[in-house]
Amino acid sequence: MKIIRIIVAVGLTAVLLYIARNSSCGRPEFVIHTENGYTFEMMTVPKGLEHGMETIRLKITGEMEPGVKPVFRQSKFGQDETTPIHKYNSVPLLVEDSATGEYYTEFSTLARGDRFYYYFEIRDATGGLRASFTSDDSKPFVFKFIGEVPTYIIGPHIVFMFATVFCVVMAFLHSFKLLSGNTDVHPLAFFVFLAMLVSFFGCYPFGFGMNYYAFDVVWEGVPFGTDATDNKTQLLFAYLLFLTLATVGSLRKREPGRHLYSPKTLGWFGVGAFGLMLGIYLIPHSIQFSVGLTKTVCYSFIGLVVLLYLIGLLSRPKSRGKQPRPVRRAKT
Questions:
Q1: What are the residue ranges spanned by the domains of the chain?
Q2: What is the pLDDT at residue 255?
Q3: CATH tag, 36-146
Q4: The 3-state secondary structure of the chain, one letter per residue
Q5: What integer is the mean pLDDT of 244-248?
Q6: What are the pLDDT digits (tens) for 43-65?
Q7: What is the pTM of this model?
């Protein structure tokens, strides 16, 4: 049974990390748009290494009569996502292959942590707009400048995050024993503690390094920032810390102490840890929400976790006696 749980945990871990990797908002994706007889096709280029050169290519099909030209509209220095896009700079696209309608633009990348916004237009000889190519909801595309993360930072970060998912899944599988009436909380407490420990190192020391080398910031989780990726991992750590404190008395296999909630309730909390992690990994990596929504969700969740801990602490029996060990039936 133990081997089966490990195999299931490894499988679920691989699936979740695969989903997280492939749902990232920072990955190139193919986009196509048709407007007024013109069709734009492009593989997005969402980021590039700092202090280098990058190229964005696209294909445009449609009648390119004399005087009609495609242009690249790029935000100026100091402009951001709130700037009306008609104020962007206008640069003619370079022709790569006129027969197939392939165009491109080249630009220098700036320091990591910076970004610019862009979209495309087709203008006629009088400056009239024939068609435009933007992202969803008429918003511009985003290009981010990033730094190269050293192997000694990104390697341990990936290992720690993989270990976090594995330990949470193992705790989740042990939760079913508690929900079915078993009172031995030690396996759940052990894997939750390990998950909390490895998530701490993956989220903070090595997460700080990832942020610094990639974006020239240290940490943008609340209360220091509203980055969704940093906050997702921080919320998972907060929940694991709560569950560790709730089961700390059962970390010792021999002579277990008193935990804050009943074994069955802790089993549900173990299921909740997996549900939270599943929700976090299903939210696309690098997605960003509004500042107000991010702060509301983060502070509300952390407040709920603190409240759950206080409820368990205050409702725990006053007795200082040790919690009885689970009864084990003698083998016959």
A1: 2-23+149-315, 36-146
A2: 63
A3: 2.60.40.10
A4: CHHHHHHHHHHHHHHHHHHHHHCCCCCCCEEEEEECCEEEEEECCCEEECCCEEEEEEEEECCCCCCCEEEEEECCCCCCCCCCHHHCEEEECEEEECCCCEEEEEEECCCCCCEEEEEEEEECCCCCEEEEECCHHHCCEEEEEECCCCHHHHHHHHHHHHHHHHHHHHHHHHHHHHHCCCCCCHHHHHHHHHHHHHHHHHHCHHHHHHHHHHHCCCCCCCCCCCCHHHHHHHHHHHHHHHHHHHHHHHCCCCCCCCCCCCHHHHHHHHHHHHHHHHHHHHCCCCCCCCHHHHHHHHHHHHHHHHHHHHHHHHHCCCCCCCCCCCCCCCCC
A5: 93
A6: 999 999 999 999 999 999 998 88
A7: 0.83
